Amino acid sequence: MTQGLKFIPAFLLCQPIQAPIDKTEFRFNESQVKKGLLKMNNSALDYFTREKFNDKYDNAYNLLSKIKLKEFIVSLNNETTYSSSPDDVLQNLNFKEIVKLGKDAIPFILEEIQNKPSSLIWALNLITGRRITEKKVSVEEASRLWINWGKQIKLIG
């Protein structure tokens, strides 16, 4: 008489787990990039940015800054979309991170408000240390004024 299998390993009975992959995240800070701690082939990434983005980003650092800025903008919008208080935007951690990016972020912020006027005009006020006008104007009008300023000083085309 043949002996049957008495023990079946548990892992053979389990179905594989299907876990969705939501997104890829880039986590870095400015000092890591400047010190070269972020490992990448810069010449390859520079080539990629020139080929894919038509010289819009003059180096890999600018591309990474744009990616980081975009992540903060998406989070800011998710967290403040239904708020009617400017203080909610100004006190938001993502808004503060956008401001911390400093002058390097200005062309990208201008590009964002050119596509969609938003509270990012307040980030421009803080980064540049000036208001675009002393008059009370709408977000749309302030965005238009900032875009014209950016074109005049050749930060955007």
What is the element layout, followed by pairings?
Blueprint: H1 10-13, H2 30-34, H3 42-53, H4 60-80, H5 86-90, H6 93-100, H7 106-115, H8 120-128, H9 139-152
Helix pairs in contact: 4-6, 6-8, 7-8, 7-9
Description of the molecule:
About 4% of the residues have low confidence. The protein has 9 helices and no strands. By secondary structure, the protein is an all-alpha fold. It starts with 9 loop residues before the first helix and ends in a 5-residue tail after the last helix. The chain has one domain. The protein is globular, with a radius of gyration of 23 Å. Helix content is 56%, strand content 0%.
How would you describe this structure in keywords?
single chain; 157 residues; mainly alpha; 9 helices
Provide a concise account of the structure shown.
This protein is mainly alpha-helical and 157 residues long. The protein has helices at residues 10-13, 30-34, 42-53, 60-80, 86-90, 93-100, 106-115, 120-128, 139-152. α4 (60-80) runs antiparallel to α6, α6 (93-100) crosses α8 and α7 (106-115) packs antiparallel against α8 (120-128).
Order of helices and strands: HHHHHHHHH
Q: Please give the domain count.
A: 1
Q: Which structural category fits the helices and strands? A: mainly alpha
Distance between the termini: 86 Å
Biggest sheet record: none
The low-pLDDT segments are: 36-42
| Radius of gyration, in angstroms, nearest whole number | 23 Å
**Beta-strand content estimate:** under 5%
What is the number of E strands?
Answer: 0
Mean pLDDT across all amino acids: 77
Helix content: 55-70%
Q: Name the overall outline.
A: globular
Counting DSSP H or I runs of 4 or more residues, the number of helices is 9
